[in-house]
# Entry
Amino acid sequence: MTWLSRRLVVRALLREWGRALLTLLTVALGVAVFLSIRLANRAAVASFEQFTQGVGQGSDLVLRAEAGPLREAQLPALRPLLAQGWMRPVIEGSFARKDTLEGFQLLGLDLVGLGAAAPEPAQDLGPAAPDGASRDRATLDFYGVIQDPQAVLISTALAAEGLAAGSVLEGFVQERPVRLRVAGVLPDAPSRPRIQRNLLVMDLPAAQRLLAREGELDRVEWGLRPGARLVDLEAQARRLLPPGLVLEPPEQRAESGRTMTAAFRFNLSILSLIALAVGAYLLFQAFDASVNQRRETWATLRALGQPPAALLRLVLGEAALLGGLGSLLGLGLGWLLAQGSVRAVSQTVNALYGASAARSAALHGEEAFFALLFGSLACLVAAWVPARRAARTPAVQLLAREGGPPPVATLRLGLAGGCALLGGVALAYGIRPAPGVAWQAYGGSLLVLAGGSLLAVALLPLLGLPGRSTRRWQLRLALRPLLRPTSRHGFAAAALAVAVGMTTGMGVMVQSFEHTVLTWIGSSLQADLYVAPIGSAGAASQHRLSAETADALAGDATVAAADRFQMLPITFRGRPTFLGAGDMAVQAARGGLILAAGGPFPAPLLALRQGGTEAPGVLASETFARHFGVRVGEVLDLPTPAGTRRVTVRGILADYGNERGSLILDRPVFLAWFQDARVASLALYLKPGQSAEAVAARLRLEHPGLQIRSNGALRQQVATIFHQTFAITYALEAIGLLVAVLGLAQGLTGLALARRGEVWSLRALGATQVDLARILLLEGLGVALAGLLAGLGLGLLLARILVDVLNPQVFGWTLAFRLPVGFLAMVALVTLGAAALALVPAARWGARLGADREVEEGA
Amino acid sequence: MAVLQAQGVGRRFGSRWVIRSLDMALEAGERVALLGPSGCGKTTLLNLLGGLDRPDEGMVLLEGEPLHRASPARLSVLRRTRLGTIFQFFHLIPTLTAEENIELPLRMLDWPEAAIRERCTALIRSVGLTHRATAWPAELSGGEMQRVAVARALAARPAVLLADEPTGNLDRSSGRAVLALLAELTEQEGSALVLVTHSEAAAGICHRVLRMEDGQFLAGPA
# Structure
């Protein structure tokens, strides 16, 4: 550090500690917002992947059935592989705790085979313990677990909540009430991620019995023996593989989890971008004010012969110092903020996917590094613009009391903005890449954002026009500066336009989404009651109703018809998706599915029923059709436990239930091919005159393990989940908007500083502080209005791209665009209201500024 | 009766008294120069006389009304109606044209539009800037800007005009022209003038000269 930088940077920061602290806090806030979203995002994805992976870590290959369960009887064919590898059979299920209805992942593992408790370790089951757990005999009572069919091992996190060995966990598996006994705790291994809290491990046979799936497995994990090569194991496995089984790397399962949460993570990614933009904007404002306040110092240095480059280095050095310190402060603040946001994310993941999610966010090293890098780099970039301006401005101009930043070329900016906007629209709509890829929509959206923000600047002179002719002097003085706006006006308006635009874009998209989904639900949900096992949530739920219970409910005296719906994960063309089955006769007579293609309702459904197993047909969801490029009339090779079956696509269904898409068979065909009479959910149509609530109340008493909801209650739940999903979106958008408004206030104080001579002059002419504050406030509101108008416009355009291009392209969802006038009015009111609230203190401060400064300079 | 009076006024910044126990009186239409080197307290006294700052001791009376006790609202009224101010650095509003700057005090007083036009036209003619009426401050020379500032200060026919180094930022010939204009217009309008300057030549347009040094008048009470 040079003599000059020590005196002009460090000493100045220490002497003007208030300014330094404000900048530090600004940097910290920007970094904190950025980091908190990233940490919440990471926690959500990590917990989801942990949930989907279960104890899959440590294996090199995973064997599973393409459709339906993997049968233990199929394994002997793979015995020759044991020379090269070990195997770990796994069955998965769900357990819902009775008191809280909290969901747990139930994992059945061959604990004898794991070798920990066996007198002679079974070598063919390999050396790996669940999730890297060490074979700690003091902690893991393997004998106890094996001997007791109700025994489970729990995570250390759950044990920390007061569950000791011998404690009882009461709850439901499938629809049956069960009592599980805690036999021990799965210790965390230091080299592995922590075992997820909601994991219960049982011995394999006990788990199969509990889940009523004797002889079935969900997957078999394979690992290499020392000295063996993966390529050899894989090649031999593929030769021996019985039909209907697939071998995949373990990452594919994690990938399927990532695919499943793509929409959700997209939502969070957009929020990260908002956080990034907002943070960078705050930093720019802070450094602009900082450089502006010390313009006399820079001018003096220039006058004394310091070259512009040296000046630039000084300002950037200060920015790096503040950026580094502020970022460190932001790490702590961001971690704290993340604890709140991760809970909101966790709720959503739980509600949408039935996966237990993280409850707290750890300060991940990589994220901390990125946040530090972001903070420091953003500070340098933010300081670069005002520093370069200060370095380039002639000293005499910097010293001039009337001197402020020069006006910006609004016409040029407006033209550039218009071109960017048109280019963005053309890019988004003009190119159609492969399904699932949407670079053109992202690129188009970015161009629209950039164009809209430039147009916000170009809008300023239009809003200043009344200032040309009005006879009201306060209005004239407030609006005249907008006729020739400076970069400060421009940045404030552009930043607000971006914040309002992203809020509007996402908001309109979410409202369109909600309207579409509710319309779909309204049409699809026609039954009076919906029944599912307690703990069911999302397409990935493992809870199933037994055929007997389903028959009993369907045969109830009050029930006119029942639609048994089953859903299971399958692998189609090497990619994970779902296969569903419903009663097409009941649906055709009483349902209301929305068909996107294949003819009017219920013709395609009746075609499925008529085709039976002779000419089998299938309905594809819209997401499935888009992901796999499938059309009506196409013949598909569907994997089933009975072998591959050729099915014809009879119709395309609108379906917003899951992101991976699904194929739907008629139930009799499904039963013939899958031999699985269990159901995931049951729709009951009551006889005329029956009260849905009364029947539901009675059935709940008769079947305590079932969740029985009326049509209205289910719709309400869907709406609640929907709102919960986007709750964090709204919260973070509000933060983004708030920060942009605060930036606007900061911009106004910069403007007041630059106009202090003018303010002082007006005071001398007799303007009161109220007059001056009013002038500054009106000027700020003019900037806010430009940002708001441009933001609303670009937001609507952004929403159209999200609805028309991005959603169909990435997720396969066709949404109906809806213009929510109330929402737009609310955005406008909140923006202007928040701007007014933030601007009032800035304006009052600016109104007092002139006198104090002049007195100091006098004498 | 004195139109503006200072009685034992003093002002300190921190523990240092910049001016102390000053007495002065200004008759209607009188022109008084405050002459002295930089830092002697001229501008501080001017700020107290104009009600832009409050004394730590003593009182300032404008047409008998104590300025140091006036509320901020009352001070604003007095500044609009009875006081005019001219600065060394002009302080024109950059977003208003020359004539709009001049008419600003009249608009603050809600004068009728016709009266504003009439007064503004007369003043702009008086300062010789009819041809530059619609120019922006950035398009004016220093001398022209100060002439606009003089016209603006006199627009509301103040009883007292306070001018702080009005030629300090101008070349000699522009300075002379502005001083001549000040003398002529204050004479014409009947306004008293307090002129802060460190130039003997500038002080020459005044009826009286008060010399200051270290916060005190050199020749006793004025």
About this structure: The domain at 4-217 of chain B is CATH 3.40.50.300 (Rossmann fold). The mean pLDDT of chain B is 89. Residues 172-189 of chain B form the longest helix (18 residues).
